[in-house]
């Protein structure tokens, strides 16, 4: 497992947030209001949150990152303070939205940091706009395997909006909180992310928010699991500096997905956070910052070349199992790649 040295103790050097520093800004794109946070100066760093979340999830790490970067953290359409229209909430549409916001802000290329659904959006952005992608940092990313938490599979089924509406009834918030505390007390993997799960429930206060959440979820998850993948095109990241960060107790996207993606992405780095769940940048923000800083400082931005891209496409994906030991891990990767053709997001 490739990993930068763990140079800082937990929470060391984390800078406090100044008043108004993380204040939301707004930009209308295609007639829809997009909320985002813009802080700092230097090479651009784009932070893309996960489903049901918002740019606020990055609040603890943005100030440190802004010391040497222009940090852009959008609220994806249908999330946070951005508009929630009846619209296309696919990963491809989100990649287009990130491109359009960056263009409106005058940013031509950037390093992308994507968490969960945001990791899938970051990979899709790099696939659609490789010339505008300098590096990829994927944090507990979706889109590299079929498995996903059973709760998310259930919410993708018919009747989910009504189910989510029940969570807003008097007393239900307390019931959910008690359940989350129990999961944490029992030291389950799901319990590692109890505070974040409660935040997601609070982020769905009305029918419009719930509808946007369900539409987004159904674009990437069905009753069988994750419905789209980038695993079949991961070979195209050759020459693209890529780092994978994962919690070994992730109950939403299992850590084995990290190993599969690491194997499928030539030259990628992998760091696993022991004891962390789906939000390793919450569990150990100092280590997260150290790894991101080291990665950015020890890699050059991708130098996209049309001819090289063409050669990769013509050569195609390497034969996963050719000449390799017949390990269970390799077989799992081959199985995911085999079914990837029907789940690709284009």
Short description:
By secondary structure, this protein is an alpha/beta fold. Helix content is 37%, strand content 15%. It contains 13 helices and ten strands.
> SSE string, helix = H, strand = E?
EEEHEHEHEHHHHHEEEHEHHHH
Q: Could you tell me the radius of gyration in angstroms?
A: 19 Å
Helix content: 25-40%
Structural class: alpha/beta
- Spans of 5+ residues with little confidence (pLDDT < 50)? 1-13, 320-332
- Overall, the morphology is globular
Mean pLDDT: 81
Strand order of the largest sheet: 1-2-4-3-5-6-9-10
- The percent range for strand residues is 5-15%
Question: What is the terminal separation in angstroms?
Answer: 30 Å
Q: Count the E strands.
A: 10
| Count of discrete alpha- or pi-helical segments spanning 4 or more residues | 13
Main pleated-sheet profile:
8 strands, mixed
Mind explaining what this structure looks like?
The chain is α/β, with parallel strands linked by helices and 346 residues long. It has 13 helices and ten strands. Helix 5 (160-166) packs across helix 8, helix 6 (172-185) runs antiparallel to helix 7 (194-202) and helix 9 crosses helix 13 (328-340). It is globular, with a radius of gyration of 19 Å. The model is unreliable at 1-13 and 320-332 (pLDDT under 50).
Key attributes of the depicted protein:
346 residues; alpha/beta; eight-stranded mixed β-sheet; two-stranded antiparallel sheet; 13 helices; 10 strands; 37% helix; globular; disordered N terminus
List the topology elements:
Layout: E1 25-29, E2 32-39, E3 44-48, H1 62-65, E4 70-74, H2 91-104, E5 110-115, H3 117-128, E6 133-139, H4 150-155, H5 160-166, H6 172-185, H7 194-202, H8 207-220, E7 221-222, E8 225-226, E9 242-247, H9 256-264, E10 269-273, H10 280-283, H11 285-297, H12 306-315, H13 328-340
């Amino acid at each position: 497992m490739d990993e930068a040295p763990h140079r800082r103790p937990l929470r060391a050097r984390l800078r406090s947030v100044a008043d108004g520093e993380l204040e939301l800004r707004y930009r209308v794109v295609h007639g829809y209001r997009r909320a985002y946070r813009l802080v700092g100066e230097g090479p651009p760093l784009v932070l893309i949150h996960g489903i049901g979340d918002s740019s606020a999830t990055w609040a603890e790490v943005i100030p440190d990152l802004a010391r040497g970067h222009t940090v852009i953290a959008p609220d994806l359409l249908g999330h946070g303070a951005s508009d929630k229209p009846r619209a296309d909430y696919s990963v491809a549409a989100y990649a287009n939205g990130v491109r359009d916001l960056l263009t409106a802000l005058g940013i031509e290329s950037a390093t992308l940091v994507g968490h969960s659904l945001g990791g899938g959006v970051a990979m899709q952005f790099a696939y659609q706009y490789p010339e505008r992608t300098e590096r990829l940092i994927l944090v507990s990313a979706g889109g590299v395997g079929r498995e996903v938490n059973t709760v998310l599979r259930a919410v993708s089924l018919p009747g989910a909006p009504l189910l989510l509406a029940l969570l807003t009834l008097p007393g239900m918030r307390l019931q959910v909180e008690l359940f989350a505390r129990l999961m944490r007390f029992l030291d389950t993997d799901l319990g590692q992310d109890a505070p974040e799960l409660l935040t997601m429930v609070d982020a769905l206060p009305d029918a419009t928010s719930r509808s946007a959440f369900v539409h987004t979820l159904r674009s990437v998850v069905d009753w069988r699991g994750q419905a789209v993948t980038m695993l079949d095109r991961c070979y195209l990241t050759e020459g693209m500096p890529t780092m994978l960060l994962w919690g070994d107790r992730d109950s939403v996207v299992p850590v084995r997905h990290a190993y599969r993606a690491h194997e499928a992405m030539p030259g990628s780095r992998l760091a696993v956070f022991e004891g962390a769940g789906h939000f390793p940048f919450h569990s150990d923000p100092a280590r997260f910052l150290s790894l991101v800083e080291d990665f950015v400082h020890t890699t050059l931005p991708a130098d996209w070349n049309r001819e090289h891209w063409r050669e990769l496409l013509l050569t195609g994906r390497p034969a996963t199992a050719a000449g390799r030991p017949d390990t269970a891990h390799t077989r799992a990767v081959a199985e995911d790649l085999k079914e990837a053709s029907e789940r690709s997001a284009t």
